[in-house]
Design brief:
The chain is of the alpha+beta class. The chain has one domain (about 5-50). Helix content is about 25%, strand content about 40%. It is built from 1 helix and 4 strands. The radius of gyration is 11 Å and the shape is elongated. It starts with a strand and ends in a 7-residue tail after the last helix. The mean pLDDT is about 85.
C-alpha cells in the first residue's frame, strides 16, 4: 500500500492505499479519524479547530 502524508492546519493527513481502497487518516483529540475523501477529513479538522467539537464518525 502506498502511504503519503500532507499537513492541514497543523494536523497530518495520511493517504493510505490507492484506487478504490484509498483512505485518508488523521488524529483528532487522540482519536484516529478516516474517510474515503480528503475533503471530509479536512472538514473534520475544521470542525474540531473552529468549533471545539469532535467530528462525527466519518
Amino acid at each position: 500500500m502506498a502511504k503519503s502524508a500532507s499537513t492541514y492546519r497543523g494536523h497530518s493527513i495520511e493517504r493510505v492505499g490507492h484506487g478504490k481502497k484509498t483512505l485518508f487518516q488523521t488524529i483528532i483529540n487522540e482519536k484516529e479519524w478516516s474517510s474515503t475523501t480528503e475533503k471530509l477529513v479536512r472538514a473534520g479538522i475544521d470542525t474540531w479547530i473552529d468549533q471545539g467539537v469532535e467530528p462525527e464518525d466519518i
